[in-house]
Amino acid sequence: MDNSRQRVVTGARYLNFTLENENYCMEILKVKELMGMTDITPLPQTQDFIRGVINLRGLIIPIIDLRLKFGMPFMAYSKRTSIIVAETNYDGECMFMGIVVDAIQEVIAIPEEKINNLPYINSKVKAEYIRGVAETADGLKIILDIEKILNDEEFVSLKSLAPATAEESEGE
User: Fold this and answer.
1) Coil vs helix vs strand at 153
2) Beta partners for residue 55, in sequence order
3) For each of the chain's 172 residues, which pLDDT tens digit applies?
4) Nearest-CA neighbor of 13 among 150, 136, 148?
5) Each residue of 69-97: b (16+ CB within 10 Å) or e?
């Protein structure tokens, strides 16, 4: 009983990160791993925002540059550039993807009642990717809906990459 009361008080937890000097968050429960930038194996004939794949302990994970997905200019990767390995569901199936962000900040708690759905958000990101905006002590945080970052066609494209790439690596 104590745990449920504490959860109500603290709110859900979100990973805070930056893109193009704006603060974004995503549910911490969707985050499986945080990594520094690593070598990414490029894939031919994929969309620009799909940077390639990495092998993470035997799992082939597609890497998406969130800047490019959101139509922001490419920025050379630096020491602060990070990959968030996130779990998402497509068609009832669990899938992992790596998301390249400018920098990871911290994990913060945001009570559900502090998250506002706004019809128009003055942000560089399309409203369809945004779950809401929260006012925090550090200012506004844009909360992304990780499940909506990719459309059906892009999910199918990513899903087809991993098995093909895994088979190619086994053959080598």
Assistant:
1) helix
2) 60
3) 444 444 444 568 999 999 998 899 999 999 999 999 999 999 888 889 999 999 999 999 999 999 999 889 999 999 999 999 999 887 778 889 999 999 999 999 998 888 887 655 555 566 778 888 898 888 889 899 888 887 767 777 777 665 443 334 344 4
4) 136
5) bbebeeeebeeebbbbbbebebeeeebbb
Nearest CA among 29, 98, 94, 92 for reference residue 60:
98
Q: Note the maximum CA span of the chain.
A: 54
Sequence-ordered list of residues with C-beta below 8 angstroms from that of 59, at least 6 positions apart, any chain: 96
Q: Which residue has the tokens 């779990």?
A: 87
d(CA 20, CA 59): 30
Does the predicted TM-score (pTM) go above 0.85? no
Determine the Cα–Cα distance for residues 166 and 8; give it in Å rounded to an integer. Answer: 43
